[in-house]
Amino acid sequence: MRASLCLAICGVCWLTVSASAGQRPNIVFIYADDHAEAAIGAYGSRINATPAIDRLAREGMRFTRSFVANSICGPARATILTGTHSHINGRRTNHDSFNDELPSWAKRMQQAGYQTAAIGKWHLPTTPNGFDYWVKNHGYYARSIQTSAGPVKRGGYTTDLITDLMHEWIGQRDPDRPFVVWLSHNASHRTWMPPVRHLRKYDDQTIPEPATLLDDYTGRSQAAADTQMRIARDLFPAYDLKLPITGDQILDGAARGRLAGLTAEQREAWDAAYGPKNQAFAASSPEGDDLVRWKYQRYIKDYLRCVAAIDDCVGRTLDFLKDNGLEDNTIVVYSSDQGFYLGEHGWYDKRWMYEPALRTPLIVRWPGVTQPGSTCDAMVQNIDIAPTLLAAAGIEIPDTMQGESLAPLLAGKTPERWRDAIYYHYYQRANGRIMHRVAKHYGIRTDRYKLIYVYNYGDWELYDLQRDPHEVDNVYADPGYAEVVEQLKEQLVQLRKQYRDETGKPVEL
Ligand SMILES: [Ca+2]
Questions:
Q1: What is the whole-number distance in angstroms between the Cα of residue 33 and the centre of ligand 1?
Q2: What percent of the chain has pLDDT over 90?
Q3: pLDDT class for 445, splitting at 50, 70, 90?
Q4: Which residue of 137, 313, 370, 436 pairs with 163 in a disulfide if CB–CB is 3.0 to 4.6 A?
């Protein structure tokens, strides 16, 4: 009550009160991987239910316009830590270095007396810095984990395992000092390996298809059609779709390795679940659009089974906090490193600046500050997370951070001069053998429009999101939008200047 009242007067005095009151909040930051808003009940999902994440939304604030700066895993994590765009922190692609010298919320909070932990997927080329305890874990089924204290033999389904590790870490903390833990899931990343308990979930259902599953990319940059992440063509039979390994498929080795990580008991359950489904597929032998639809069902059901496990773990964590008397003084954040294509434009994966991948869920429950069941329509971006965590802890925000604290928004107070556009830049064209081949591009998204520059193709795309929410009608060359194009280009130039991005080809006005 005191915090929100003070925020209404001024953000700075609130920070002072919060820090001096000696009641700095704990923070549990749950970070999924590739979890699209379209697969969250609170965001209006048509395809699944997420009761625990929805509970968090009912008890906190849901951001309806939450975006990323660069829609891919490693770069998103670098942005989250440092509050900077990719060209500033160096991690522009999953293969670039990361400037660990930059201030991060973890380092600042550790210095300020917080107990800090990072548990789960790390995906940066550096050793976790600013964390008292860390666990690095990649993949769905674990036999061992890498920790700050050395390797530990501990197995299980990763989503469950890292949640247990977080609860254990919180349980053994010093209760006299606040804590912050970043729980970073591998789920629901490719190759979508569900837990045994959910292997048959959705078996008797047909998941609704998105409107653009059979998109033909007419009117857009050739780069869209050149993209190699089509459900129809680019999912690998064994690696992605869990069809039998026949020996003549690319990535069979990886598929075998993945299954080798299962225990005998898990493997038995796995084969019992997929075996009959694969036999039915072989017997029906769908072709053409029917085959695309079959692939979509196989893909989306496995994806949603992985999401179901995340949701289970969010529920367990909310219960854990309540049962341990931590609910009232712990901020809980749910977000993802980016969104994902769940069949929109015929795609899986992320990268392109279209809405399903540009958006990312963001839900925050801050007892005494966020109004339960509230929503916030302000444009926010993942560069804002680091300043927000620091503000919540009453710690000064370093001027290297390019985002803004969301603390006023969380208290229901939108500052008079909040941003009216976000800037985006994607850099990673190829990705090893799994060639997504998404062209480098940057762009601007305002409340109504999105302008994208696919600079190595020399192509521009403009979408009127109000009229064309599915982004299939590129109106860049439409004379009726000439003025809009001109204004957006000027604004884009300003954003590139503001964020000091001189990478990629400049905008020609
Ligand atoms: Ca990701």
A1: 4
A2: 89
A3: very high
A4: 313
Distance from the alpha carbon of residue 185 to the mean position of ligand 1, in angstroms: 10
**pTM of this structure:** 0.95
**For tokens 């666990």, what's the residue?**
135
Q: How far is the CA of 186 from the centre of ligand 1 (A)?
A: 8
Q: Is residue 203 part of a domain?
A: yes
Residue 248 CB neighbour total at 10 angstroms: 7
pLDDT, tens only, 85-115: 999 999 999 999 999 999 999 999 999 999 9
Q: How far is the CA of 71 from the centre of ligand 1 (A)?
A: 7
Say whether both 58 and 130 belong to one domain.
yes
CATH code assigned at 149? 3.40.720.10
Q: How far is the CA of 344 from the centre of ligand 1 (A)?
A: 17
Q: By the 8 A CB rule, do 184 and 118 touch? A: yes
Q: Name the percent of the chain lying above pLDDT 70.
A: 95
Question: Cα–Cα distance between 183 and 160 in angstroms, integer?
Answer: 11
Is the residue at 505 inside a domain? no
Q: pLDDT at residue 429 above 90?
A: no
> What is the whole-number distance in angstroms between the Cα of residue 102 and the centre of ligand 1?
22
CA-atom Rg of the chain in angstroms: 22
Ligand 1 centre and the CA of 34: distance in Å?
Answer: 4
Look at residue 44 in the predicted model and tell me its pLDDT.
98
Q: Which domain holds residue 72?
A: 2-192+311-412
Tell me if residue 357 falls in helix, strand or coil.
helix
Question: How many domains does the structure of the chain reveal?
Answer: 3
Question: How far is the C-alpha of 150 from the C-alpha of 169, rounded, in Å?
Answer: 16
Instruction: Give the Å distance between the CA of 353 and the centre of ligand 1.
Output: 14
Residue with tokens 């801050």: 366
